[in-house]
Amino acid sequence: MAQQLTTIVFDLDGTLYVDHELALAIHQSACRYIAGLRSVTMEEADRLIRSTKERLTEATGWGTPLSGACRELGGDLPALHRHFAEEIDPAALIVPDNRVNELLSALAGRYGLYIYTNNNRFLTDRIVRTLGLPDVFRHTFTIEDTWRPKPDRETLQRHLAAIGAEAEECLFVGDRYDIDLRLPESLGSRVFLSRSVDELLTLQDHLNKSAGCSKIVRSSHPQKAPAEA
């Protein structure tokens, strides 16, 4: 018999909001960081990041996030994320959607809600405030907890222990299957792939239909996602 679902773990960027301008701003900031680190042009830094992500993904069989590619290129993750925090103002780019707030408030009455993001604490807090998300999350896990970006088995297991839930009790919601969802799915979690706010808003209907079963919930097939940390 399937374990009862008690916990929902949300990715942040590209999941609780979708803004391609902010995703592009993060990627361009990473390019400036790598350009300075490697003494190359922005165009060359962009090529290095993209080719490194492709190479690592092919070598490991797992998706490679932006932070992982920058680390492979010699970057220091705390320094990279300080660079992001100094350069990026999410308030100038993203717009709140009250429908998401209503969904989260409704889900909080039934499940423990958490955020698990590859973003840093400073930008995560600013994004959450800008979106006006309700105070329903029991904890927010960021890259600063271990400086090991998703997907990372050791970090995921550490977060599950902190939550106090078995993988089978959790639903993970994200916009990048290989980075946000594939690893928790392999541990027995249910997963929901959401690539737009409209898809995210169908989550409650999917939960109602699959209540009490171990069915993997996925809103669409994996696709290429915008750049995120």
From TrEMBL:
Pathway: Organic acid metabolism; glycolate biosynthesis; glycolate from 2-phosphoglycolate: step 1/1. Its EC number is 3.1.3.18. GO terms for cellular component: cytosol. It catalyses: 2-phosphoglycolate + H2O = glycolate + phosphate. It comes from Geobacter argillaceus. Keywords: Hydrolase. The lineage of its organism: Bacteria, Pseudomonadati, Thermodesulfobacteriota, Desulfuromonadia, Geobacterales. This is phosphoglycolate phosphatase. Belongs to the HAD-like hydrolase superfamily. CbbY/CbbZ/Gph/YieH family. Pfam families: Hydrolase. One of its GO terms (biological process) is DNA repair.
